[in-house]
Amino acid sequence: MSPTQQQTIHDSSRSIADQASGSVAGFRDTTDTNHDGQAMPNTEAESMNEQSVMPLLVAQDVALAATKGGYDAVRFNALKHGILSRLTVLAHEDQNEFADLLAALIEEHRPAGMTERHLIEELAAIIWRKRRVLLAEGAAINRGLRSVAHSQHDSPIPAAAPFERGLSKEGRDLPDLLTANPEEIAERRRNAELDLTATRKAAAILRKGGPNAYAKARRALIQESRDWWDEQTEEEEYPATAAGLAQFIRKTLEPIGIRMEQEARLTPAIQVQTLGEGLQVHRLEKLNRYETHLDRKFERTLAMILKLKQLRGG
Fold first, then answer.
1. Which has the closest alpha carbon to 142: 270, 274, 266, 294?
2. Do 175 and 272 belong together in one domain?
3. Pair 88, 125: CB distance under 8 Å
4. Which run of H or of E encompasses 187?
5. Would the CA dihedral through 268, 271, 274, 276 be positive or negative?
6. Residue 111 and residue 3 share a domain
7. Residue 276: which domain range?
8. What are phi and psi of 39, to 5 degrees?
9. Crossing angle, helix 254-278 and helix 114-149, to 10 degrees?
10. Counting C-beta atoms within 10 Å of the first and last residue's C-beta, which end of the chain has fewer, N or C?
11. Residues 173-203: pLDDT tens digits?
């Protein structure tokens, strides 16, 4: 702050204090006397003295705000002098964030006097508590999702498509399905469809038969399936013949291809089902009641602020 701004604030505060002192002095000159001629204390003068001192901090804040061109200048004074402000923000929370919230409310409503200032602090505290409610709600939902995603007994996968045959949780990575984005899902579905189509084409070639059926069927498979088949023949799991390849396709390749295509096609439904089961409403009932209480308190406090502004013609 420049020396000129500091001098302006000092002059504004000094002017307010001088006006208050002058008013009190005027009242003190008009003291009353009792029937014995003794001076009686003027209650009105003492009351005026107290009233002139109480809003002095607020007046200084307003003078500071006027110098800077806005109420954001009282940001730190709001936290320093506000009773609620010091108690609302917990040690692990961001005081600056609350200060910005309080300053924005002060700038919007421009309180006149300590009563309105207290109500503005109350309004900021309510909003701050609602922020905590949202954090708690998110934490409860995340815990529910974790419980559903890692359940060993009741997987949401079969329930995602209750009339889909062969859909089970076996061999499926549910967390991986949940984190897949639409582009990844579309790519997985294309690859699964290509793999299944190639596998069924190879099976059809083998069923048709012919002198080169084995070589043609092997070439019809995608590269990954061919490599897997070659490993099987090298390890002598299957013979490198048309009959051996047909058996490998029937028992292994085609069932896996069907499962992968089914999984890719139903991934969006599995995601929705898991998210729905993870939102365990019974865990949110107390939070919902608390949020309703805060909403009503916010409405009452705001209505009181607006009523006070209306009464003073603000």
1. 274
2. yes
3. yes
4. helix 182-208
5. negative
6. yes
7. 170-281
8. -70, 135
9. 150
10. N
11. 788 888 889 999 999 999 999 999 999 999 9
